[in-house]
Write a structure and sequence with these properties.
By secondary structure, the protein is mainly alpha-helical. The protein has one domain (2-30, 47-223). Helix content is 83%, strand content 0%. It is built from 12 helices and no strands. It has helices at 2-9, 11-37, 39-43, 47-62, 68-79, 84-105, 107-116, 119-129, 131-140, 146-155, 160-183, 192-223. The longest helix is centred in the last third of the chain and has 32 residues, at 192-223.
């Protein structure tokens, strides 16, 4: 019932979510293969040419053509940790672009949720009071897609400052890890430490998200006098 109402009010929301779920896998597979085939040419790019590359990734990450982890690993493979100077600003610009896009198309979808479940308003109010921690945990999780979370967080009305600050704090650990993995691409078979760190990030993110949502639900129940 709720899904139908959201689709009726904002068909673009469904298209956007489906796009962001499927396109990163397709596009990153193709671009990853092409990067491997043209590795020698990419290695010879100048700093200015790499700057143009990262400017392009602002749009590919914001609109879910390429997963951020893929971009970070690719950057690590060709540039190492030096890529962070261009990669982090590209992430921030992509976040801002995705947030702005969600604000334009998401209002009707969010209102449909409020109408169907009035108590969701109280829950969202609780989330907004923990908005910085919520964004950090959403960003630090290796399994929550960057572009989809831009839309979801934008839909919920998270303020722009905690969205950007929390995004930066949360993205840095997984970004550094992805760059490091890219640097060791040929030696992943012996890279068990990276796998353990990746799992650790996943556990931390889920525990943190559970804590934030639990506090939000408790606030919702308190407002209802439960």
């Amino acid at each position: 019932m709720l899904v139908r109402e959201i689709i009726r009010r904002s068909p673009a929301s469904l298209v956007l979510i489906l796009w962001m779920a499927a396109m990163p896998l397709i596009f990153s597979t193709i671009s990853g293969y092409q990067s491997w085939q043209h590795a020698e040419w990419l290695t010879g790019l100048t700093q200015l040419e790499w700057a143009w590359f990262f400017l392009l990734t602002v749009f590919t990450m914001a609109f879910a053509f390429t997963p951020t982890t893929f971009v970070a690993a690719l950057s690590g493979y060709f540039l190492g940790f030096e890529s962070l100077w261009l990669l982090v600003p590209a992430y921030m610009l992509a976040s801002l672009l995705g947030y702005a896009t969600s604000q334009l198309i998401g209002a009707k979808a969010v209102q449909a949720v409020f109408d169907a479940y009035p108590r969701s308003t109280a829950v969202l109010d609780g989330l907004k009071k923990n908005d910085l921690m919520l964004v950090i945990m959403c960003r630090i999780s290796p399994v929550l897609p960057f572009a989809i979370m831009n839309v979801v967080l934008g839909y919920t009305g998270i303020r722009i400052k905690p969205f950007l600050v929390g995004g930066l704090i949360g993205m840095l650990p997984r970004t550094v890890m992805a760059v490091a993995i890219g640097m060791q691409m040929e030696a992943l078979a012996t890279g068990s430490l990276f796998s353990l760190l990746w799992i650790g990030l996943l556990v931390v993110s889920f525990v943190g998200l559970g804590w934030v949502f639990k506090r939000s639900i408790n606030r919702s129940q308190s407002k209802d006098g439960l």
